[in-house]
Amino acid sequence: MVDESKGKKLQEALTHKWKNVWETLDNSEMEKVFAINEEYKNFLDKGKTERESAREIIRMASEKGYISIDEIRNKRIKPTAGMKINANNKNKAVALFVLGKEKLEKGMHIVGSHLDAPRIDLKHFPLYEDSELALLKTHYYGGIKKYQWVTLPLALHGVVIKEDGEKIDIVIGEDENDPVFFITDLLPHLAKEQMEKKMNEGIVGEGLNVLIGSIPYNDSEISEKVKLNVLKILNEKYGIKEEDFTTAEFEIVPAGKSKDVGIDRSMVGGYGQDDRVCAFTSLKAILDVEVPNKTAVALFVDKEEIGSVGNTSMKSKFFENTVSELIDLTEENYSEILVKRALANSWVLSADTLGAFDPNYPEVLDKRNSPFIGNGITIVKYTGVKGKSGSNDANSEYLSKIRKIFNDNNVVWQMGELGKVDQGGGGTIAYILANYGMEVVDCGIPLLSVHAPFEIASKADVYMTYRGYNAFYKA
Predict the structure, then answer these.
(1) Which residues belong to CATH 2.30.250.10 in the chain?
(2) Who wins on pLDDT, 419 or 350?
(3) Region(s) of the chain under CATH 3.40.630.10
(4) Which residues lie below 8 Å from residue 100, measured CB to CB, with a gap of 6+?
(5) Upstream peptide bond of 275 is cis (omega within 30 degrees of 0)
């Protein structure tokens, strides 16, 4: 007679199935999930650009006792274990440190995310008039599907440096009483040729012109009256003129606040969740760290969506220079070798998002190896394209350490990759940090509709990712 329970026991002992976070939560944890996501939505709404996100990070950190590395250096404060330090890179990138009990040369536990998101930027001389309409010329930033950005209410966020050096922050389109902006599209009745094109050709980059006004200035003797009226309004409200556009950074983003998604309110929908969801969870996690063994670092960088180039990106020397400053402050005798050891001995979670399995598009995803919404923080051994090109590809020894940290702290986790082999791919900042000899693995949150103007995350994944990063910092 066959023992039917034997096979079941063997199956339970040898096979593995990823957990659904919701099924692991008790009532008290359910309350925590919804509470932390209210904080998260607030963070998303306050930080729609990399500048705004960096400002909010520094504000929140300052409330928790973080002090600027410049202040420490200028006042010659001796750093000690538990000291909380922030470093600001040109108001677009930030590093937060909680000094550990061990010396920096023993390495750090770093969670690195990025603050920039796909968007539409204004050109340096954007304002023009055509057919009695005022419009703005644009240049899109990062990997967008251009057709997703037309016929949406849009907001303008940015900073202007005037001729006299005055710096003005401008946000139009977010207050309920503000006007919004718009990119037009053809009506279906006249779109026969457009709809016969490939999707990436139906809306072209030079066609992403933003509608900004239509009332002419009341003077019969001038041309481009609508453009002049727009400039008049901007000058009256902000004191700027057309030349000031040349020294401005203006970003066009979707207007409106993030929202709960689903009748059960189980998900968050909003703009810029790639990668501000990982920025928020790593920020929240480090703000709850007091005196870790290894120095804990939350790293927030810019320009990831365009290849991590520029002086606020991960490829800049900002982080390396900041670590050098800390070595100089904490050691009696500064040495470059101590900086190299501190970097090489570090562990990193490259905190970025990836596409969750979407039942509407199963043909591009390997269901057995894709992350699922609601199944927790996701470890991604490799990214890259085709034959793992451009990937960090974490080693087994490091993966086993991360698995142990998560399992020991009851963190619900899963593994995933970005689509089927040869289907597409992508990259993160992981390979850049790995160049220092650090142990690095990608580890973040799966989203639906990544890079769209409105992305979807599971509230359960947000909560579990916060817990996972917090456990990593404290390990």
Answers:
(1) 119-254
(2) 350
(3) 17-117+271-474
(4) 81, 108, 291, 292, 293, 294, 295, 296
(5) yes
* Alpha helix stretches (DSSP H) within 112-243: 192-195, 199-202, 225-238
Element (H, E) at 379: strand 377-380
What's the one-letter identity of residue 66? Y
Q: Rounded to an integer, what distance in angstroms lies between the CA atom of residue 222 and that of residue 215? A: 14
Tell which CATH classification among 2.40.40.10, 2.60.120.10, 2.30.250.10, 3.30.70.20 matches the domain 119-254. Answer: 2.30.250.10
Instruction: Collect all residues with Cβ–Cβ distance below 8 Å to 116 and sequence separation of at least 6.
Output: 50, 141, 142, 302, 303, 304, 305, 306
In angstroms, the CA 301 to CA 133 distance is: 38
Q: Which residues of 186-214 are buried (b: 16+ CB within 10 A; e: fewer)?
A: eeeeeeeeeeeeeeeebbeeeebbbebbe
Whole-number Å distance between alpha carbons of 411 and 415: 13
Q: What's the token pair of residue 1?
A: 């007679």
405 phi and psi, to 5 degrees?
-60, -45
**What pLDDT score was predicted for residue 1?**
54
Q: Which residue has the tokens 């900004």?
A: 212
Q: pLDDT by residue (tens digit) across 412-442?
A: 999 999 888 888 778 899 999 999 999 999 9
Which CA distances in Å does 360 have to 2, 185, 377, 447?
42, 25, 22, 14
Q: What is the pLDDT of residue 170?
A: 97
Spatial neighbors of 378 by CB under 8 A, at least 6 apart, are: 354, 371, 413, 414, 415, 416, 443, 444, 445, 446, 461
Q: What is the mean pLDDT of residues 222-246?
A: 96
3-state secondary structure of 67: strand
C-alpha span between 203 and 75 (Å, rounded): 55
- Give pLDDT tens digits for 157-172: 999 999 999 999 999 9
Note the CATH architecture for domain 17-117+271-474.
3-Layer(aba) Sandwich (3.40)
